[in-house]
Each structure stands twice: as C-alpha cells, then as structure tokens.
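Researcher: I'm preparing a figure for a lab meeting and need a structural model of a single chain. I don't have an experimental structure, so a prediction will have to do for now. The sequence is pasted below. Please return the structure as tokens so I can convert it later.
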Amino acid sequence: MGSLDRYRDRIINGPIYRTLLWLGLPAVSVQLVNISYNIADAYWLSRYSPIDVAIPRQIWPSFMMFQALAMAIGAANQALISQYIGAKMYVNAIRTIKQYFTLSFILGAIMSITYYLLRPLIFLFISSPPQEIVNGVLNYSAIISIDLFTSYFVLCFSIIIQSAGDTRRPAIVNAISATINIILDPFLILGIYLFPRLGVIGAAIATVLARIVGAIILYIIMHRKFPFIEIGITTEIDREWLMTTFRIGIPILLQNIFNSLAFQIQLRLINSFGVATSVAWSIGFTVIDIANSVLWGLSQATAIMVGQNLGANNIDRSKKIARYSQILIGSIIAIGSCFAYIIRHNIITLFIDPSDPEVNSIYSETENFLKYALFTIPFFGIFFVGSSVGRGSGHVLIPTIIDIIRLWIVRIALGYILSQYLGSTGIWIAFALSNMFSGISATIWIQRGKWAKPIIKRSS
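Model: Understood. Here is the structure written out token by token.
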C-alpha cells in the first residue's frame, strides 16, 4: 500500500496550488493532445468534404446520453474510492474497485448494443441533422457504438488510478490514444497510400482503434502499478455499495441525460437554420476547445483533492481547495479565451476558405458564434469547478440543478425565443448567457460550503 500512502500524503498535506497543478497538468497536456486530435479530425474531414466537418458533433450529444451511466457510476465511485483512501480504509477501497469494474462491464455492453439499435430513431426524431449529412451521421454512429463499450473501460480504469492520486499515467495513455487517432485520420479518411478512402467512416474507425489501444494500456498499468487490486468480474456485489453508488450517481445520471437531450434539442434548433449553421457550430466548438484545454484536467484534480481531504476530515482545507480551484481555473481559462479570440480567424481558415463563395456563409456564421461565446467560457469553467466539487464530495444535487437550468431554461427556451427574432444569433446569445448564469450560481453554492462533509462511514 506504500504507493497509495505516498500519493495520499501529498494530496492531504501538500500546498494547494502546487498540488492542483501536480495532479492536473498531466490531464491538461492530454486535453491539448485531444484538441489537436479534434482539430486534425475536422481538418482532414474538411479536405474530404467541407460539410462533413459537422458530422462528429452531430453524434456527440446522443453518445453522451448512452455514456451517462458510465459518468454517473464513475463520479460516485471516485468519491468513494478517494475518500476511503483518504481515510486509509484500503480494504474498502479495493472492494469498491472490484464492484465498480463489474458494473462498468455489464452496463457498457448493454449501452453499446442499445445505442446501435436505436440510433436511427434518435437522429430521425430528436436532432434531425440536415439532409446533406444524414447518411454520414448514421454510418459514423454505427461504428462509434463500439467505441461506447470501450469508453466504459477507459473511464473505469482512469478513475481508479486517478482516485489513488496518479493522474499522470492515465494522462499519458490518453495522449497516446489521441496521437494514434491523429496519425490514422489522414490514411483512413483520405485513403493515403494503400488505405481505402473512407471519409467519416475512416474517422470513426480511427477513433475506435485508438480507444481500444488506450483501454489495453490502462489495464496493463492497473495490473503492474497496483498488483494488490485484482481487476475482474465479481459476483460479490454489496447491496449497500450499490445503493450508495446509485444514490450519488442518479443525480449525475439525470444531469447527463437531461444534458444530452438538451444538446440534441439545441442541435435540432441549430440544424433548422441549415447545414451552414451546423458546420459553424462544429468549427466554433473546435475553437472553444482551445480555451477549455485546462478545464478538464484541473477540475479532475479538484475532485480528487476534495474527496481525499473530506475523507481525512480536513473540512477547512476542502473549502480552500474549492475556492482556490475557482480562482486558478477561471483565470487560466480567461487567458485561453483571449488567446482563442485572437487566433480565431487563423483556426477558422484551417477548415474554410473565406474567398470561396460557396462556403463564405459558413465562415461568417462561425465568426458570429465565436463573437458571443468565447468571453463567457471562463464562467463555464467556474461552473465546472462546482461540478467537480460535487463529485469529489458526493454532494451533486445542486450542481445538477444548476446545469439543468442553464441548458433547458437559458440555452434552449431562451435560445428558441431569441432565434425567432434574431435568427441563429439568438442561439449564440443564449449560449453565452447560459455560461454566465451557471458560473455565478456555482460560485454562490461553493461559498456557502454546505457540501463540505464526507459521505463515507468510518470504521468504529
């Protein structure tokens, strides 16, 4: 257990800012690689067909819906595992890990098959992509259903290793996976050398192959780094663990399902303005991803530090971690947003030639979206810190409510109303306002501090 003790001591006692960066920077590096992959994916698809750039973003909301269970049970078990480790209850942590892996395997298989079967209905009745890309969406999503199953393993292994305090190895593995994806894209999309020219199907195959490699490497790391944790299917599922997992996970499950539906309905609204607006949404989000590059890694560090410190009964330190995380992440994302705004034209022209009259409307629409969206991204970063505090503490209800309001009331309902008067600009304005609302609300919740209490039961 020596490796667990070393990681725990640094998280419980180390300087807060330095520890946040120590835990978070590896994942930030991965996010930068992932952004590079997203840009490369969109770039090669734009060389195949400009409108095919929109296809992967059409899939993402429905994929997120079927991945919702993985996110929910992952958040619950991250809180449990990290708090057990913080309390030095290692036997409980190992038992939790075995049950968590078993549940991930079962749910991953069920969700993958269900997504494959239901995807035509999802795209026909919910997001309704423009006719020009319907076939590409259906073909891409069929292959991505395999990726859904693999993603349950990747998330499970990553959370187990991260909860122990090792964020570097999952980060490196994700970077390797993304790099494989980047390398495979031009060969499979454009048919370079002896490879067939597959377009969006090639992009999907590259994603699946890269994810499978990542899952295998993570399993090997688990086996070698923590040999005392025997990963495998277990029939010993503790009822109390199951109830705790779903008690913590259900709000997150509902949050992710509502988020997915919201994004699909929002996508339907965007799609109703034509394929140019759909492509602009996809390119615009690629630019926003640059500003968000620090968000995912550092917020993951926040969840781990909050969880382990609550497990060690360091209540005041947990509150400081939450406040310091807001300051750090909000500031860095503000800088990233400014940088993305400065280079936005350069990035847009990677995918769109503004001198080409056939795609000039896409360029203008993308520029319009970014004008409203970029400077509100720091508010979203602050909100995401709130969600991470909720995951680390196990108190996720309030962040879930905030998230539902920002999407359903502000982004969709207000976006629909504004779009009737302002066209697609109304959608972009509502997007910006939803970020501002969520950031302000999360700050108020964190400052009140009612979340700062552990959820685990201590041994008597």
